[in-house]
Design a protein that fits this description.
By secondary structure, the chain is α+β, with helices and mostly antiparallel strands. The protein folds into four domains: 9-304 and 400-472, no CATH class; 329-396; 499-646, no CATH class; 648-809, no CATH class. Helices cover 45% and strands 13% of the residues. The protein is built from 27 helices and 23 strands. The strands form six sheets. Strands 4, 5, 13, 18, 19, 20, 21 and 22 form an eight-stranded mixed beta sheet that branches. β11, α10 and β12 (292-294) form a beta-alpha-beta unit. The longest helix is centred in the middle third of the chain and has 31 residues, at 490-520. InterPro entries: ATP-dep_Glu-Cys_Ligase-2, CP_ATPgrasp_2, DUF403. Residues 488-793 form the DUF403 domain.
């Protein structure tokens, strides 16, 4: 918007089109966009928070004309090239320091200076492969850089998701305004990574800190979109100077690593010894040229504000030209002239850490504004700046330009900042034609600073020429047909397996609860056996807490569904299923992720407070049945997606393996609970209902439920998809299809356990099945589950592994 708060000319087409839609139509479209954000799982975390927040999206994009964008693009490319050359010199010949052009303190004083990287020549001869700059437009209309990002820049995935949502919300407007596409940038970036690899047909991985990273959802999105293997530190192992990923088929070579873990946490051998986010030996593999990295350890050095203050003179010395986009004026107090000026202008500048937020132990990324300080704090700041000026910078306060924003049904000018991304290719630097824009409620006296929780906006670069459609897919003539299953990391297999087990346990609990509630209304006083056995099974599975066992059966049924404090309740199992799914999220479709979230929501039949609290309203039996049946329908939809839409590769095998192992064990326990001893006909009816076989039983046996036929149907029937025998056949088939570590033709331990069990169940007679025989089968299944875990999954000690195995069979 201009100085008078009026829209600039290139905004008129957008605003006129929006006016034709009308406010009601815009509200409807953005309500759909909000649902789309939830469905796609576009979230972020504030530092220190466990819960994910939806990423808010501004209703209006930021519009940039082609001429203005060309200046930004040129300036960012120049800056990225300059920083790459500086890193080459700092970790190479070090001429700039030896010649006095670059003060040694600006390098050695930074905690991001990684000494083990000295003398290293990176694979592909690039120190910088992915770069981001935080820029802002001042009130004078000029763009300035206020922060360089090279450690592990975040935001490209959010920019991509914003584009997908806005293009779907206003498709015709997006086309009519000739908006430049983002796909070509990601295509070029991926090609640049592949070109840097030391081998042809490289394996490219994205290293994530894990599910509790503030931007994990973005990392999942990028891995899925670019076709990268998403790995955590525990997935990686360095041997003989090379980096490998642990997979179900053994160790597989890693060629390129896109790093989203800070360098200090990447290698506990040479950096932070307490880190569990990286892989021991990672630095050594990089030094030997066995892997290319984006960006290598040590690239974060260029993020320091001390170095930023020197970039204007360094650009003239190294490139022979001025910066095309100037910095926000930054004075580094490690130089006497700059320190004196900073002191003289203390009340007009923001004081920030030269090498991060550590100065004074309290300067965060927003910095300190002297007029806001008390007398003691001001005195302390001046003393610290006098004693160790090298730790401080003084930046100008920058009044931000504004962009139109939709606020309370009207257009309002709002300040904004923009993060722009650049990627290295064989032909130089390419800049994403757009970026990650943050829109703020008001001007911050702390200047250009990305405020937490501010909504983001899509960035539309309006081309003067016709836009060609771009895609990550290769031209049809160049496409190479591939049908191999790909690589499945052990950690991903582990989480898919437990996701299957938790979903199956959720279903089993819901079936128990439904059977209990249906019988409470019609129970006869002379036959309490079915209800007593149902309650015992709920207690045995931990569906209710010990201090709740005295409650009425209807209350216990309610708690078994919705008590988040009971580790075995349906809600707790569903939440664990979603948690394990989130760790393998890049392998799940949007439909599946949406259904998992819907399952958890359907099971929250009570307020978020403790379901066991005295006096809290519980649902009636019919309401509990409705809740359980709604959740069972969601699980059925999930099962349908798994069976019909999941590619038959190793990931599906482990998802189904978990489901089959859990179902077989649960069926054994249900058979022992409801058919042992002298069960009544009603108890056997419950067993037949729990294995969903009423129709089949009645079509085979005209008489009422009897013990031998019921046990045969639950344990031995090879045609019943709920029987133990059916599960064992599926388990054995999956194990036979999984890759072996050795190509010697010898069965591995899990298969040596499943194949004999399959044969024994196929040859058993119904009359030989009693409680002791079922218990033996159950114990063999438990041992088989442990054997699968030992063979295929990673075994770093972790609270996650302990938690998972504490809650299920």
């Amino acid at each position: 918007m201009d100085e008078g708060g009026r829209p600039r000319p290139h905004w008129l087409l957008l605003l006129e089109a929006l006016a034709e839609f009308g406010e009601a139509e815009i509200d409807q479209r953005f309500a759909r966009a909000g649902r789309r954000i939830d469905e796609m799982g576009i979230t972020y975390r504030l530092h220190g928070e466990a819960r994910e927040r939806p990423a808010p999206l501004s209703r209006l994009p930021l519009l940039l004309k082609q001429a203005e964008w060309a200046r930004i693009e040129s300036g960012i490319s120049q800056r990225a090239e300059l920083l790459d050359l500086l890193l080459h010199d700092i970790y190479g010949e070090n001429r700039l320091v030896s010649e006095g052009v670059l003060p040694a303190l600006a390098v050695a004083g930074s905690p991001e200076y990684v000494r083990p990287m000295n003398g290293v020549k990176p694979a592909g001869d690039r120190w910088l492969r992915f770069y981001a700059a935080d820029i802002a437009r001042g009130a004078d209309g000029e763009w300035r850089v206020f922060r360089d990002r090279a450690q592990a820049p975040s935001g490209p995935g959010y920019a991509l998701e914003n584009r997908l949502i806005m293009a779907r919300t206003f498709p015709s407007l997006f086309r009519d305004m000739n908006v430049r596409r983002l796909a070509s940038f990601f295509r070029d970036f991926r090609a640049g990574l592949a070109a840097a690899a030391p081998r042809a047909d490289p394996r490219i991985c994205l290293l994530t800190p894990g599910v509790f990273s503030e931007t994990y959802a973005e990392q999942v999105s990028l891995a899925r979109y670019l076709g990268l293997l998403l790995v955590e530190g525990e997935d990686l192992i360095a041997e003989d100077g090379k980096l490998f990923v642990r997979t179900i088929a053994g160790l597989k070579r890693v060629d390129v690593l896109w790093r989203r873990v800070d360098a200090d946490w990447c290698d506990p051998l040479e950096a932070n010894a307490a880190s569990r986010l990286g892989a021991p030996g990672l630095f050594d593999a990089f030094r030997r040229g066995a892997i290319a990295m984006a960006n290598p350890p040590g690239a974060g050095l260029v993020e320091s504000r001390a170095l930023m203050s020197l970039l204007p003179s360094l650009a003239r010395h190294v490139l022979g030209e001025d910066l095309r986009i100037a910095n926000v004026e930054t004075l580094w107090c490690g130089r006497e002239d700059a320190a004196a000026r900073a002191m003289a202008e203390l009340d007009q500048r923001l004081i920030k850490g030269a090498f991060g937020p550590g100065a004074l132990g309290r300067i965060d990324a927003r910095g300190l504004y002297a007029p806001e300080l008390g007398a003691c704090e001001r005195t302390r700041l001046i003393a610290a700046m006098t004693e160790r000026g090298m730790d401080f910078t003084a930046q100008e306060q920058m009044a931000l330009s504004t962009t139109p924003a939709w606020v309370d049904g009207a257009l309002q000018p709002r300040p904004f900042t923009l993060r722009v991304f650049a990627a290295a290719t064989r032909d130089g630097w390419v800049v994403m034609p757009g970026g990650y824009c943050r829109v703020y409620d008001s001007q911050d006296p702390h200047g250009a600073y990305p405020q937490a929780g501010a909504p983001s906006a899509d960035v539309w670069v309006l081309s003067d020429t016709q836009i060609d459609s771009a895609t990550l897919l290769p031209p049809s003539d160049d496409a190479h047909i591939v049908r191999v299953p790909g690589v499945l990391p052990s950690r991903a297999a582990d989480n898919l397996y437990w996701m299957g087990r938790y979903l199956e346990r959720t279903e089993a609990v819901l079936r128990l609860v439904r059977a209990l509630c249906n019988r409470l209304a019609e129970a006869r006083h002379d036959d309490r056996q079915p209800i007593d056995r149902l309650l015992r099974q709920l207690v045995a599975w931990g569906c209710v807490r010990d201090d709740s066992r005295h409650m009425a059966p209807a209350r216990l049924a309610f708690l078994a569904v919705s008590d988040r404090g009971a580790y075995g309740s349906a809600l707790s199992a569903a939440r664990e299923a979603r948690r394990t799914a989130s760790i393998a999220r890049e392998r799940l479709s949007q439909d599946m992720w949406q259904l998992l979230g819907g399952l958890e929501a359907r099971l929250q039949c009570a307020p978020a407070s403790d379901c066991g609290a005295p006096g809290l309203h519980a649902l009636s039996e019919p309401e509990i049945v409705d809740c359980a049946e709604s959740a069972l329908q969601t699980i059925a939809a999930l099962s349908g997606l798994m069976d019909e839409n999941f590619n038959r590769v190793a990931g599906w095998s482990f998802l189904d393996l978990g489901k089959r192992i859990e179902r077989a064990i649960n069926t054994c326990r249900l058979a022992r609970q409801f058919a042992e001893g002298r069960p009544t006909m009603e108890s056997l009816d419950v067993l037949i209902e729990l294995i969903d076989s009423q129709i089949t039983y009645r079509s085979r046996y005209l008489s009422g439920a009897a013990q031998a036929p019921a046990l045969d149907m639950a344990v031995l029937d090879p045609f019943n998809p709920r029987s133990v025998a059916f599960q064992v056949v599926r388990i054995d088939d999956h194990l036979a299809a999984l890759p072996a570590l050795l190509n010697d033709g010898v069965m591995e331990r899990p298969r040596r356990m499943s194949t004999p069990l399959r044969a024994e169940l196929a040859s058993k007679e119904a009359k030989s099945i009693d409680a002791a025989a079922i218990l033996e089968i159950e114990q063999r299944l438990l041992c088989l589950g442990e054997a699968i875990s030992e063979r295929y999954f990673s075994h770093r000690d972790s609270a996650l592994a302990i938690t998972k195995r504490a809650q299920l069979a």
